[in-house]
Amino acid sequence: MNSTTITSPVLAARGIRKSYGRGTARFDALDGVSLEVYAGQSIAIVGKSGSGKSTLMHLLALLDSPDAGEVMVGDTDAKELSVKQVNRMRNEDFGFVFQQFFLNPNATVLDNVVLPLTIAGVAAGERKARGMAALQQLELDDKAKNMAVNLSGGQKQRVVIARALVNNPKVIFADEPTGNLDTMTGALVEDILFSLNKDKGITLVIVTHDPELAARCDRQIFIRDGREVGSLDNAGAAA
Amino acid sequence: MKTLDIIGTAVDNTFRSKLRTTLTVVAIFIGAFTLTLTSAIGTGVSNYLDIQLASVGTTDVLSISQTAEDAPDLGDGPLRYDPTRATADGVPSPEAGFSTGVLTESDLDAIGNTRGIRDVNAVVSLTASYIEYDAKGKFQVAISENAELTKADLAAGEQLTPSDNNQILLPASYLETLGLGAAEAAIGKVVTIGIANYDGAMHEVHATVTGVQNLTLLGAGVRLNQALTNELFAAQTDGEPTAYERGYFLASAHFDPTSNDDQVAAIKADLASQGYTAQTLADQIGVFQTILTGIVAVLNGFGLIALLAAAFGIINTLLMSVQERTREIGLMKAMGMGGGRVYALFSVEAIFIGFLGSALGALAAIGAGSIISNVLANTVLADLQGLQVLQFAPGQVAGIILLVMVIAFLASTLPARRAARQNPIDALRYE
Ligand SMILES: Nc1ncnc2c1ncn2[C@@H]1O[C@H](COP(=O)(O)OP(=O)(O)O)[C@@H](O)[C@H]1O
Ligand SMILES: [Mg+2]
Question: Taking every annotated instance into account, which residue ranges of this chain make up the domain ABC transporter (chain A) (predicted)?
Answer without folding.
Answer: 11-238
